[in-house]
């Protein structure tokens, strides 16, 4: 004889107990949709092929294995990364649309305040750190300096005569140069280019005399002897240039790098952020991934949301102050 429970089930109904179990199977913490329920998109404000893109894809692939869904990088360059930044800030806060944010999040509010998001600290939720990438101060062989201290002395002896290249006004390597000049008390001429490649060509030819450049980009010319490395912009030495000392050995406390971190739209549920943070940690702690990125001059860094939040806050204040005090304006 059929009982009442069996009859309800046969009629397509369910008891409260059965219903709650089925609901939990289809939902995530707090009654939300199970995460991730589909592929996760990671937007990048940079074009394909560069170190930022290569690192993003390596980390995304490893995260996908942890999450059980594909994590796909989408390149959306434009407006000093504001196109990608804004798209994520305005996305549905469910964890399926993320941002590989970079130092530009700390720079844009002071340099280009009309770009959105105007307040990344309020519009994006940090997930965790991805990497740090240092710059090397290298010079044309015609410059009679073999250390940062000698270069500073040379610039002081020739005020306003040393042409210092960068990959563009407001780029991190430009701000690195501006910070170096202010800390060292030297007067140099900033020559902005549209990217690092044309600047490097001019440095090789001696039409500019110095620049801070990403280590992995400078390595070929340094190994050829076409330029001479004087110092590293990070507080620690680069494993790719172990004999080149940090600028901090000459200017204590100097530490200026390009960084990348993962962000979600503000309002993303905490359990989803925690799941993403765990997958990101697994990726950045992967020994094979770290070794592969080290060959590109990239120091993959494990760091939680709090570390990334503190970094963004600290650099928004420090880069903003430098931009205002030095009167740096976008081209």
UniProtKB/TrEMBL annotation:
InterPro entries: BUG, Bug_dom1. SUPFAM superfamilies: Periplasmic binding protein-like II (SSF53850). Gene3D superfamilies: Bordetella uptake gene, domain 1, Periplasmic binding protein-like II. PANTHER family: BLR1237 PROTEIN, TRICARBOXYLATE-BINDING PROTEIN. Belongs to the UPF0065 (bug) family. This is BUG/TctC family periplasmic protein. It comes from uncultured Acetobacteraceae bacterium.
